[in-house]
Task: structure prediction
Amino acid sequence: TSLSPFVMTGLLGGFTTFSAFSLEAVTLYERGAVGQAALYVTLSVALSIGGLMVGLWIARTVLA
Result:
C-alpha cells in the first residue's frame, strides 16, 4: 500500500531511537558514571510516560 514507507519509517525509527538510548546508557555505565546512567534512564522513561499522559489528556479533554 501507499502507507508502507511511512509505517516502516516509523517502525525502524523507533528501533534506532531505542538503540541510541541504550547505547548512551551503556556508555555512561561503562565510563563509571553509574549514577548518571541511572538518572538518564529513569528520567527518560518517566518523562516519556509523562509526555504520553499529557498528550492523552489533551486528546481526550481539549480536542474531544
